[in-house]
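step: validate -> pass
step: tokenize input -> pass
step: predict -> running
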Amino acid sequence: MDKATRQRKITEIIRRSPVRNQSELVALLTKAGIESTQASVSRDLSDMGVVKVDGVYRAPQLEPGQSQLVDHLAAEKIGDHLIVVRTGPGHAQAVALHLDRAKLTGVAGTIAGDDTIFIALRSRDDQSKVMRKIFSIFKK
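step: predict -> pass
step: emit ->
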């Protein structure tokens, strides 16, 4: 079984039913006919941007090329070196992962909660450029 097929099945499983730990996920994959190890599942979850919310795994609602899944996105400049982005409930971590993978020039790092992302900037001159880039990535 290739990695992409396994990851599609993981997404299907965690969207269909609550999965609380990796051992449970490995068992569900085995039941679905996909043999996997806990180590592989751990790497897959990380690669896919899967996060735990209220004790269960949640697949990101945002996948590359599917930015229209972000139904609410607002950003504001805070001080000289910070942008706060607000998303729909449960979307912040997926959006932050997408931004991190985009490697935006001027971004020092991101911190995401459930619906809010803090973006630290390297300089005040980067604020406007980064905000424009964020909205160009996620425009509908």
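step: describe -> Residues 3-58 form a domain with the Arc Repressor Mutant, subunit A fold (CATH 1.10.10.10).
step: cleanup -> pass
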